[in-house]
């Protein structure tokens, strides 16, 4: 009996390497007797019929993403609610999440189809923004939720509470609230620590804070994070989710962030080594 019967293909938007890889992947999956559905970008590159995202998520039992980490983040936010496992084929630049190389794609996907893989569950964050009693919007993020100034190079002021306890009021360019997955992204470049992806934790990393004593803090991801925009510095701000889906904010608005109840399921080849990924992508040990 097959573990997977219907596969969804997702991809980045363009590139000859993407199209060639998609063609090879599609032909292979069809020869394995699998039903194959495609997202809009993948279908466009293969001159085929696309399936709407929500319908695709409901029908497939395995997703293969051809592209970079950004492509997988987009697919992951869609598929987490449906608990569809994802395999990433790396045609991007960094590749912390997409770890199947095109040259080894058919061999490694064959093994995964036969049940020879490692499964990795990744936490997501859910955030909503409020203006008084009015909800401005909500979304989920696999990497990070980021509060930052809008259109101006100016600091914003905000107050942070964790589980109802006052933490601090600070002025900074913003704040990164990151999952362990996102700890190697914006949070890392802002001075945050790397967290192993198996940890049930979140990181709060201030962006260019206006005090030397402001430091990142790691908390349990089931903690409720509440942020209130200050009134003393009326600078417009944005709340972003993995760099997208911005929610405009003004003084007095409130943000509530907590772990999403659903996790993303990520499948790796059997030889997957998280520390090798870190060494390779961050160039640890490279002689300068």
Automatic annotation (TrEMBL):
Annotated positions binding NAD(+): 69-70, 143-144, 154, 171, 173, 184-189
Catalytic activity: NAD(+) + ATP = ADP + NADP(+) + H(+)
Cell compartment(s), UniProt: Cytoplasm
BP GO annotations: NAD+ metabolic process; NADP+ biosynthetic process
GO molecular function, one term: NAD+ kinase activity
Main function: Involved in the regulation of the intracellular balance of NAD and NADP, and is a key enzyme in the biosynthesis of NADP. Catalyzes specifically the phosphorylation on 2'-hydroxyl of the adenosine moiety of NAD to yield NADP.
Protein name, per record: NAD kinase
Gene: nadK
């Amino acid at each position: 009996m097959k573990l997977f019967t219907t596969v969804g293909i997702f991809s980045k938007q363009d590139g000859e390497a993407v199209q060639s890889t998609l063609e090879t992947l599609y032909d292979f999956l069809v020869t394995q007797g699998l039903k194959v559905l495609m997202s809009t970008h993948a279908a466009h590159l293969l001159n085929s019929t696309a399936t709407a995202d929500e319908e695709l998520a409901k029908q497939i039992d395995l997703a293969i993403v051809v592209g970079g980490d950004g492509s997988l983040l987009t697919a992951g936010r869609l598929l987490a609610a449906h608990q569809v496992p994802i395999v990433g084929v790396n045609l991007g630049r960094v590749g912390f999440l997409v770890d199947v190389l095109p040259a080894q794609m058919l061999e490694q996907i064959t093994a995964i189809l036969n049940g020879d893989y490692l499964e990795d569950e990744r936490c997501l964050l859910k955030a909503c923004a409020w203006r008084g009693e009015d909800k401005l919007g909500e979304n989920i993020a696999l990497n990070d939720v980021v509060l930052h100034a809008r259109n101006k190079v100016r600091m914003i002021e905000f107050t942070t509470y964790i589980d109802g306890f006052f933490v601090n009021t600070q002025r900074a360019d913003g704040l990164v609230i990151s999952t362990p997955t996102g700890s190697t992204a914006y949070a890392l470049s802002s001075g945050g620590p790397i967290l192993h992806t198996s940890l049930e934790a979140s990181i709060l990393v201030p962006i260019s804070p206006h005090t030397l004593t402001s430091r990142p803090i790691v908390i349990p991801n089931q903690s409720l994070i509440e942020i209130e925009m200050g009134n003393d510095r009326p600078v417009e701000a944005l709340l972003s989710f993995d760099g997208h889906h911005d929610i405009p904010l003004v003084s007095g608005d409130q943000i509530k962030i907590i772990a999403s109840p659903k996790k993303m399921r990520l499948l790796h080849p059997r030889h997957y080594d998280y520390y090798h990924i870190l060494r390779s992508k961050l160039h640890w040990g490279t002689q300068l």
